[in-house]
Amino acid sequence: MARIIVVGDGPAGLAAALFLSRNGQDVVVYAQDQTAMHYALLNNYLGITRLSGTDFQVVARRQVADAGAQVREAEAVAASVTDGGFSVETADGGTERADYLVLAGGKPSQRLADELGAERRDGGGVVVDTEYATTVDRLYAVGRVARPERSQAIISAGAGATAAIDILSREAGRDVHDWDSPPKDG
Ligand SMILES: Cc1cc2nc3c(=O)[nH]c(=O)nc-3n(C[C@H](O)[C@H](O)[C@H](O)COP(=O)(O)OP(=O)(O)OC[C@H]3O[C@@H](n4cnc5c(N)ncnc54)[C@H](O)[C@@H]3O)c2cc1C
Questions:
Q1: What does the pLDDT profile of the chain (186 residues) look like in tens digits?
Q2: CA-to-CA distance for 100 and 75, rounded, in angstroms?
């Protein structure tokens, strides 16, 4: 089981945490609940006809906690690369290590990406590959932190899920799917 720290509790971070914790990983989310979702009225999230962004966040946070992730009300203030992983400091003086780090805190997470030596584009977004892996091994950047110019909730959630599947696949040493099917009748 890998230890994974997710910095940020918007759609990107919560989606990453959901997929990782559902699949048996040890996940902690640092959360401040200052997401722009609180200003949104979702009419464009496929499968949801109309929902306030705040209501979306309430459901998503509960779903993530029910899946086994720890959602902690704490601000990640510093991060460094350690031997084979990361160390993250919080504003309350705590320090935790992780095997993987997922930056999902929107634009404020760009500073943490800089501290960790991740490359950035001219527009400010963190450089990522198709799996949202940064130029630093085991460091991922999802949602607005990587794509600040074209931000939509469903895109952030998809990015978080993509990064999670990549981490799960790395840990398993093969491509992993997170698929469920309804129980068969009879
Ligand atoms: C007025 C308005 C209306 C919008 N309407 C829509 C809409 O209708 N449909 C739509 O798809 N999108 C809409 N959006 C955009 C949508 O809100 C964003 O695309 C989405 O919130 C991005 O999600 P994210 O997870 O990438 O980042 P964010 O939502 O920015 O989430 C980042 C989270 O991480 C936390 N955080 C940051 N740094 C730290 C740290 N160091 N430690 C701990 N926590 C941290 C923040 O407090 C925040 O809760 C709207 C935005 C605005 C401003």
A1: 999 999 999 999 999 999 999 999 999 999 999 999 999 999 999 999 999 999 999 999 999 999 999 999 999 999 999 988 999 999 999 999 999 999 999 999 999 999 999 999 998 999 999 999 999 999 999 999 999 999 999 999 999 999 999 999 999 999 999 999 999 986
A2: 18
**What residue segments make up the domains of the chain, in order of their start?**
3-172
Q: Is the CB of residue 120 less than 8 Å from the CB of residue 23?
A: no
- Note if the pTM is more than 0.90: yes
Q: Which residue has the tokens 């464009």?
A: 44
Contact 154, 46 (CB under 8 A): yes
**Residue matched to tokens 């609940």:** 33
The verdict on the CB of residue 79 being under 6 Å from ligand 1 is no
CA-based nearest residue to 119, from 105, 134, 107, 131: 134
8 CB near ligand 1 (under 6 Å): yes
Q: Which residue puts its alpha carbon closest to atom 39 of ligand 1?
A: 105
| Atom number in ligand 1 closest to CA 45 | 11
- Tell me how far CA of residue 100 lies from CA of 6, 17, 26, 84, in angstroms: 9, 12, 10, 9
Q: Is CATH 2.60.40.10 the classification given to domain 3-172? A: no
How many CB atoms are located within 10 Å of the residue 103 CB?
34
Q: What totals of helices (H) and strands (E) does the chain contain, helices first?
A: 4, 10
